[in-house]
C-alpha cells in the first residue's frame, strides 16, 4: 500500500511523484532540479521585480535571498514574477486607470502560477502600493503556508524631500512661486534610489497593516530597502515558510477577523492612507472575513493617531525605522488593550509572544506621541454618509485642515478637466471641487487624485478648497479630501447629479456629506440623468469595469455575491 504523502508536499507531490510524472520532472531538471529536490516541499517566490519603478527595482535580489532561505531550510525555492506598475509615474494620466486594476492582475497571476505549478508554500515580495494587497490576496486565495515580505522604504531625498515634494513643487511652479531651475533641482534629488515612497503613504501603510495582520515577519514593514536588515528579512522568510509547512499554518489561520481589527488599529495609529480602507476590505473578502466601512468607524472611536508622519506630518518612514519601526508602537497598543494579542502570526507564535521582548522607543524621539497626548484623539479616517454618499465615502481628516467645510460645488467630469481648471485659477478659495466618473466602473479603475490635490496644495489653497470624488487618493494626498464616494456617478449615484453652485457640506465630526438640494429636485435630476457610454469596450479596463464591485465593498473582481 502506498504511503500517504507528507503534508508539507501536499501540492507538489501530485506534480512530480511517480513514473507517470517523468515528463514533469524532465522539465524541472532543465531549470535546476535534481533527484533530491523532487523530495522537498516546493516554495514559490513571487517577485514583483521591475525596472518600471524604484519601489521594485531591487526586489529581484531580494527574491533570490528568499529562495536561498527556503533552500537552506530544506525546501526547494522557485522564483517567478508578477507585474508592477508605478503610481508615481502614471499619476495624472490615462495610464493611472490601470493602477488599481494591477492589484487584481497580481492576485490573479500569483494564484495562476502557484495553482498550476503545485507549490506547497509561498513567499511574495512587494514594493509599490498595489503590489502588497495584490500579493496578499493571491496568497489568501490559495491558502497555502505563506509569508509576505515588504521590499522596504526609500531614503529621503536632498532637503528631506520625496515624491510628494515633486508633485507639490509642480503646483508651486504653476502658481508662479517656483522657477524651472528650482523644480528641476527637486526632480533630480527627491528620489535617491530604490525603495517605496518615503512617507506614511499607501506602500508603508499597507506594509504596516500586513505586519499587524500577522502575514509578515516582525519588523518587515519598517526596514530600509537597501539594508542588511531587509536582506536578512528575506532569508528569514524563506526559513519561516518551511516552519509554517511543518505546522500546517495557512493564511486562513492568521487572517482572522481579530487580525484585521489589529491591521485597522495600526493604520489609524500611524495616520495611514485612505487606500487601506479599500485594500483591507478587499483582502478580508478574499479570505472570507466580513469587514465593512463601519468597522473603521468603530475602531476609530477608540484608537488615536499618534504618528507625526508625512503627508500631513513631518517625518518619513526611514526616520521611524531608525527608532525601532512599528514594533514598539504595537507593544504600546497591545499593553493599552487596543490590539488582540492572541492572534496567530507567520512566526508560528501569537502577536503577544512576538512583542514580548520588544524594546521601547528612545526617550528623546518625537515621531510617535504618547497615547494620552496624541496627534488626534480619534481616527483621521472618517467614513461619511449622507445624501451625496448613501453607501459611504472615505475622508482623511487629520484636523489640521479643519473638520467641517461647506461651499459651492465646482463640477468636473474627469481628473484632467479639474487639473486644468486648478492650474488656470478657475478653482478659487471656498470651492468644493467635484471630480466624478472616476470610480471603479466609470473611470474605470479609480484613479488617485494626487496631481490635483498636489496642485491645490502647491497653489496655497490646501486649507481653502475641498475635493470630493468617486475616485481615490494617493497616500501622499492631504488637505480636505473625500474619496470612494459610493455609489459612484457612473452607476447613477448622487455625485452624478451635482451641478455647479450646489452647496456641499462635509462634516467630519458628524461623519456626514450632504448636498443642499431638495429631494424633489434630486429626483427630477435623476429622471433626466443618462448613463454615459463606457470609456473602454475592449481590453483589461473593459473587463475590469464589467466585473468590479463597488468601492464600499473593496473594488474586488472575484466576489461571489
TrEMBL record:
Residues 40-354 form the Dihydroxy-acid/6-phosphogluconate dehydratase N-terminal domain. Residues 367-555 form the Dihydroxy-acid/6-phosphogluconate dehydratase C-terminal domain. Keywords: 2Fe-2S, Amino-acid biosynthesis, Branched-chain amino acid biosynthesis, Iron, Iron-sulfur, Lyase, Magnesium, Metal-binding. Mg(2+) binds at residues 87, 129-130, 448. [2Fe-2S] cluster binds at residue 55. Pfam families: ILV_EDD_C, ILVD_EDD_N. GO terms for molecular function: dihydroxy-acid dehydratase activity. Residues 1-20 are annotated as: Disordered. The modification N6-carboxylysine is found at residue 130. Binds 1 [2Fe-2S] cluster per subunit. This cluster acts as a Lewis acid cofactor. Its EC number is 4.2.1.9. Its cofactor is [2Fe-2S] cluster; Mg(2+). It catalyses: (2R)-2,3-dihydroxy-3-methylbutanoate = 3-methyl-2-oxobutanoate + H2O; (2R,3R)-2,3-dihydroxy-3-methylpentanoate = (S)-3-methyl-2-oxopentanoate + H2O. NCBIfam families: ilvD, PRK00911.1. HAMAP family: IlvD. Functions in the biosynthesis of branched-chain amino acids. Catalyzes the dehydration of (2R,3R)-2,3-dihydroxy-3-methylpentanoate (2,3-dihydroxy-3-methylvalerate) into 2-oxo-3-methylpentanoate (2-oxo-3-methylvalerate) and of (2R)-2,3-dihydroxy-3-methylbutanoate (2,3-dihydroxyisovalerate) into 2-oxo-3-methylbutanoate (2-oxoisovalerate), the penultimate precursor to L-isoleucine and L-valine, respectively. Homodimer. This is Dihydroxy-acid dehydratase. It comes from Vreelandella malpeensis. The gene is ilvD.
